[in-house]
């Protein structure tokens, strides 16, 4: 099977909980994944930068240490994910992200161009998840 | 010998295999059943209950007899096992072999084993049951599971689409083509290796001038060329569930895999699952040599195997005449058709007569003498005295067709009886599930093809697509006779006795069903359970229609009034190994902290604890036992200082204008008066007043809190908060985020903790005045940004230090280095348990055991009953008014201080007859140098200083003295210092 699994390493991540109508226009300046109706994950940015553009009522938390991530790349990456999770990947837009279950664990999945995929799990699951992923 | 190979130069390469220890030769592309028939093997199995000799009956999933063990895999159907070189097969339920089975003696005592015998026998004497059970267990069942683990390679895979088409016969392919051409994403699955279904097995069908094989090949190529069509061959759809979810088992999907489990999700489903042929009911209709007519034709057409040299057909419908004619044209000797109908379509008669097949109308096969078919006894239906013998070596039976409506029923579809077909057909409803072709009662090839196209168009329209008509002008089927079925037929008997089987797989006879009705088990559900009809491996596929008809006759009712049982997944047996998906590393998820590697390198004994976390239990030095290591860690904590990894504790940040209101409703505590920078130990209850969770809550800012939960309840607590935020009180302005894994949590505790913290370097004022108990301060520790909290679970002076998780090891090592001169040591969960017992601190899961409320635990100080309301308040009031004794937290001391009371030991009442409490936590206390325990005891606070009697899990009894539930530093001066 031709799939490359590469660790994303240390990242700058910021979790935001705020009403979508208030947050989305301002978070658009960052690379932002919407994970739930009012929950967002901003990539490659510091918490104070995000807090500066949002209303004081938003909850902005540095989560750079809370996640571990991997990039899946290769012609068989999509097939591998079809074994790992129940999402209809054909219906996902490029750049879209969502939460899904893989192996019973919550994973943030993001689809990138050229059938590349980013997977992020809670860092406490990192050791197990990499074992599991390489065995799929 | 009976079966033989027809002349066929296109046979595959020869393969060697064995059956019941005897060698045979087959060919590539054959099934085990086809190869056994070709080798003239008649007896391949023994029946379930009577151990009667049985032969191959069918050609596919409908096979009720030929269950075999293949290498180490039991319960395979010989009709579905592809032959391979070196294959080893054994009959199940027979010893030493199918040909000669010692347990055939069961048939001698068959009269003692009618339906329901197991409800009436082995009842007395009762003490003999130990003997009966062993005998019954050895006699019951079929195959044996291998002692060694099977080498079973499986995989699970998800697939999605707009429509799932089940079946690749004429209806299925027509539906799939229609849908795919309309632009739908189609998944089509069929149990066979090649599309076409039963009808495409040979000559006789022309579609726009092309033979069926060519047409199917072209259709399949068109589907395979479409990128949004997924075609699964050798894939049996085993279940249809709600919301368009279905499962399919693909056999031998690729090299290195035995099976693949497909999890299919589509918006709509088209079922083209076909129909199977029904048996005829007459005495000894289970003898080797009695076969399904469709199977006899199929073996000849697909495998070039003639099942016998002189075939007689016994059928009650005209469609069977086409099969008989086809068989004859293939070179198989068919001498006669015995038909109980008096009026038979003239074209059907003319067709077979032209081929030299005699038609014996108004006659029935009455019985088969002998242990296999060497001739049959037939008689006019209305004159059994005129019975005569008819020579044959195979009796091919056709009692009509039973549409396979199982998948339709799985997801809640209803069925209704059609008297013309004598079968149950699916009833259309509002679900996006349609049936087409034979499974919907359209039995002919042309009808099925047209129906598939029609249903495909309906499904496409329902999905918002426009479907063009399928471009087929002309379908010619040679010998297409109308069914003209005479409803489920049971041959009359010349004399009582003899076994006429309805369910071959479960060894259930027609008389068994009538007996069940006489004994009052006359509903279809009771009939099934009382007789076990329909409960064998084939789930009654070949038998249910006839069983319902027999029961209807016994009741004087119609089959429609009797109805069917409920068909549930799976449609066919699935190996647990297939569901388990063993090719991947199917580990149970475990969780680690950023310090786990350090713990492992320090040779900590690691435990898998709540929430999936791996935590250090204790750190034994060389030669130390568990008790010695725990005692050492406890002494260090009480005398010097320890550090432990508390990172798995749940942590949730919550913020908003209404956050205080929210917390006041969720917790028993008051929060309005908590100052920013301070924390409070809080408790959440269930609605019924029981303790749900506890933990310290800190106020970071007027509208911003940090909640701690227990490790095991972290996820549940988060869900509880989200549920109340989103569903119960959506009007409240607040937001929350889990931060459990963002922060590592290192606890430094002991009398020298403050000195060590100062030594490691911090910009915080650590004095008692500036940093009181329950305060939170933010600053630098060892040069790392940190939040430091003064909380304690051990009863010692403690500083809980939160740093970003990736910096945890840096801080941990710095603390160990700074504390070296002070004798610092790491602390595991075992010692933590001892220390908190000494302090009388409760633990969720021990003292908070799912029964006790905070008052039971002596914690009325945590409950602000003057709040207008909070979750559980009403139940606490009710508990207080209830006069029944409540379990109350107490301490226990064993008379012998060296004896540790077992956790879980029951505390007995005065009579020693009833438990009135139990030991929740117990240990040897290094601090007190004696054993101590905590317990929940009814009215325990009234029993202080009295003696109680305990009954231990090992069956011993012992005494203990009731005492207060705090053994060390009762005023908590050490942790507040």
Helix-strand layout with pairing:
The complex is a heterodimer of chains A (136) and B (977).
Chain A: E1 4-7, E2 13-17, H1 20-27, E3 31-36, E4 39-43, H2 47-53, E5 59-62, E6 67-73, H3 77-84, E7 97-102, E8 105-112, E9 116-122, H4 126-134
Antiparallel strand pairs in A: 1-6, 2-4, 2-5, 3-4, 6-9, 7-8, 8-9
Chain B: E1 4-5, E2 14-19, E3 22-27, H1 32-38, E4 45-46, E5 53-54, E6 67-70, E7 73-77, E8 87-91, H2 105-108, H3 117-120, H4 129-139, E9 154-166, H5 170-181, E10 186-189, E11 205-207, E12 210-211, H6 212-225, E13 229-232, E14 235-240, E15 245-251, E16 259-271, E17 275-277, E18 290-292, H7 293-303, E19 305-306, E20 311-315, H8 319-329, E21 334-339, H9 346-353, E22 358-361, E23 363-367, E24 376-380, E25 388-390, E26 394-398, E27 401-403, H10 406-410, E28 415-418, E29 423-426, E30 433-435, H11 445-462, E31 475-477, E32 501-503, E33 508-509, H12 510-518, H13 524-531, H14 544-555, H15 559-562, H16 576-580, H17 596-601, E34 605-608, E35 614-618, H18 626-639, E36 642-645, E37 650-655, H19 659-666, E38 679-685, E39 691-701, E40 704-709, H20 714-728, E41 735-738, E42 743-749, H21 753-760, E43 776-781, E44 784-789, E45 798-804, H22 808-819, E46 825-826, H23 829-839, H24 873-881, E47 887-893, E48 906-908, E49 915-925, E50 930-938, E51 947-951, E52 957-963
Helix pairs in contact in B: 5-6, 5-11, 7-8, 8-9, 12-13, 12-14, 18-23, 21-22
């Amino acid at each position: 099977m031709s799939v490359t699994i590469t660790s994303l390493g240390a990242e700058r991540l910021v979790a935001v909980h705020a009403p979508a109508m208030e947050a989305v226009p301002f978070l658009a300046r960052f690379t932002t994944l919407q994970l739930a109706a009012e929950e967002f994950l901003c990539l490659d940015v510091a918490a104070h930068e995000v807090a500066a553009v949002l209303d004081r009522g938003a909850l902005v938390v540095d989560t750079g240490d809370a996640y571990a991530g991997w990039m899946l790349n290769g012609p068989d990456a999509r097939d591998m994910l079809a074994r790992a999770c129940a999402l209809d990947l054909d219906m996902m837009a490029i750049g879209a992200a969502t939460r899904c279950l893989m192996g019973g664990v919550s994973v943030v999945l993001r689809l990138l161009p050229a059938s590349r995929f980013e997977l992020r799990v809670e860092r406490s699951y990192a050791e197990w998840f990499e074992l599991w992923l390489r065995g799929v | 010998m009976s079966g033989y190979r027809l002349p066929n130069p296109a046979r595959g390469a020869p393969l060697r295999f064995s059956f019941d220890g005897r060698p045979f030769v087959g060919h590539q592309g054959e099934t085990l059943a086809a190869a056994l028939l070709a080798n003239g093997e008649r007896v391949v199995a023994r029946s379930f209950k009577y151990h009667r000799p049985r032969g191959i009956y069918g050609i596919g999933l409908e096979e009720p007899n030929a269950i075999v063990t293949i290498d180490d895999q039991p319960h395979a159907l010989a009709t579905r096992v592809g032959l391979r070189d070196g294959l080893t097969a054994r009959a199940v339920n027979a010893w030493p072999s199918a040909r000669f089975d010692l347990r055939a003696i069961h048939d001698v005592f068959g009269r003692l084993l009618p339906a329901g015998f197991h409800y009436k026998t082995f009842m007395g004497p009762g003490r003999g049951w130990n003997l009966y059970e062993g005998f019954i267990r050895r006699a019951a069942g079929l195959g044996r599971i291998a002692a060694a683990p099977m080498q079973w390679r499986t995989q699970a895979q998800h697939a999605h689409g707009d429509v799932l088409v089940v079946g690749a016969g004429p209806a299925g392919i027509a539906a799939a083509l229609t849908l795919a051409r309309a632009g739908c994403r189609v998944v089509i699955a069929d149990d066979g290796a090649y599309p076409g279904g039963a009808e495409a097995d040979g000559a006789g069908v022309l579609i726009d001038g092309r033979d069926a094989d060519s047409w199917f090949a072209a259709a399949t190529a068109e589907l395979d060329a479409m990128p949004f069509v997924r075609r699964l061959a050798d894939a049996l759809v085993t279940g249809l569930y709600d919301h368009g979810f279905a499962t399919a088992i693909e056999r031998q999907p690729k090299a290195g895999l035995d099976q693949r489990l497909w999890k299919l999700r589509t918006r709509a489903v088209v079922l083209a699952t076909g129909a199977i042929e029904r048996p005829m009911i007459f005495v000894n209709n289970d003898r080797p040599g009695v076969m399904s007519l469709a199977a006899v034709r199929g073996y000849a057409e697909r495998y070039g195997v003639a099942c016998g040299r002189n075939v007689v057909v016994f059928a009650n419908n005209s469609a069977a005449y086409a099969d008989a004619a086809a068989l004859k044209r293939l070179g198989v000797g068919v001498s006669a058709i015995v038909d109980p109908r008096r009026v038979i379509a003239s074209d059907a008669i003319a067709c077979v007569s032209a081929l030299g097949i005699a038609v014996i109308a108004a006659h029935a096969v009455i019985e088969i003498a002998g242990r296999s078919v060497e001739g049959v006894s037939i008689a006019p239906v209305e004159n059994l005295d005129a019975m005569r013998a008819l020579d044959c070596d195979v009796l091919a039976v056709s009692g009509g067709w039973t549409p396979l409506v199982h998948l339709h029923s799985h997801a809640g579809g209803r069925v209704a009886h059609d008297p013309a077909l004598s079968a149950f057909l699916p009833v259309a409803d509002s679900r996006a599930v349609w049936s087409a072709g034979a499974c919907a009662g359209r039995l002919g090839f042309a009808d099925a093809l047209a129906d598939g196209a029609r249903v495909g168009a309906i499904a496409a329209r329902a999905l918002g697509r426009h479907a063009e008509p399928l471009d087929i002008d002309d379908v010619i089927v040679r010998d297409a006779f109308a069914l003209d079925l005479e409803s489920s037929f049971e041959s009359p008997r010349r004399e009582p006795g003899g076994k006429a089987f309805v369910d071959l797989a479960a060894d259930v006879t027609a008389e068994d069903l009538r007996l069940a009705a006489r004994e009052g088990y006359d509903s279809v559900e009771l009939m099934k359970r009382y007789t076990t009809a329909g409960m064998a491996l084939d789930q009654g596929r070949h038998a249910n229609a006839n069983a319902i008809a027999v029961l209807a006759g016994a009741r004087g009712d119609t089959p429609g009034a009797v109805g069917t049982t409920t068909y549930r997944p799976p449609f066919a047996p699935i190996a647990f190994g297939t569901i388990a998906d063993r090719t991947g590393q199917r580990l149970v998820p475990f969780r680690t902290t950023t310090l786990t590697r350090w713990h492992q390198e320090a040779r900590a004994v690691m435990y898998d604890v709540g929430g999936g976390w791996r935590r250090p239990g204790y750190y034994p030095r060389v030669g130390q036992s568990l008790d010695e290591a725990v005692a050492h860690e406890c002494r260090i904590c009480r005398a010097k200082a320890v550090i432990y990894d508390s990172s798995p504790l749940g942590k949730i940040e919550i913020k908003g204008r209404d956050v205080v209101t929210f917390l006041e409703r969720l917790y028993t505590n008051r929060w309005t008066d908590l100052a920013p920078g301070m924390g409070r130990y809080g408790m959440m209850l269930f609605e019924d007043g029981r303790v749900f969770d506890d933990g310290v809550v800190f106020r970071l800012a007027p509208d911003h809190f940090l909640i701690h939960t227990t490790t095991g309840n972290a996820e549940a607590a988060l869900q509880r908060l989200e549920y109340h935020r989103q569903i119960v009180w959506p009007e409240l302005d607040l937001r929350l985020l889990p931060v459990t894994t963002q922060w590592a949590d290192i606890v430094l505790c002991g009398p020298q903790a403050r000195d060590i913290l100062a030594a490691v370097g911090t910009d915080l004022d650590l004095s008692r005045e500036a940093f009181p108990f329950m305060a939170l301060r933010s600053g630098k520790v060892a040069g790392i940004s940190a939040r430091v909290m003064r909380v304690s679970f051990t009863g010692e002076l403690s500083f809980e230090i939160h740093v970003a998780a990736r910096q945890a090891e840096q801080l941990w090592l710095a603390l160990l280095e700074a504390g070296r001169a002070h004798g610092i040591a790491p602390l595991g969960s075992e010692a933590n348990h001892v220390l908190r017992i000494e302090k009388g601190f409760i633990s969720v899961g021990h003292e908070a055991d799912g029964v006790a409320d905070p008052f039971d635990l002596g914690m009325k100080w945590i409950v602000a009953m003057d709040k207008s309301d909070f979750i559980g308040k009403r139940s606490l009031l009710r508990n207080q008014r209830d006069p029944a004794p409540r379990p109350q937290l107490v301490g226990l001391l064993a008379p012998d201080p060296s004896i540790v009371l077992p956790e879980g030991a029951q505390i007995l009442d005065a009579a020693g007859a009833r438990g009135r409490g139990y030991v929740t936590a117990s240990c040897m206390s290094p601090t007190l140098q004696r054993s101590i325990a905590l317990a929940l005891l009814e009215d325990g606070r009234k029993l202080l200083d009295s003696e109680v009697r305990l009954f231990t899990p090992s069956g011993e009894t012992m005494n203990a003295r009731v005492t207060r539930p705090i053994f060390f530093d009762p005023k908590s001066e050490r942790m507040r210092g």
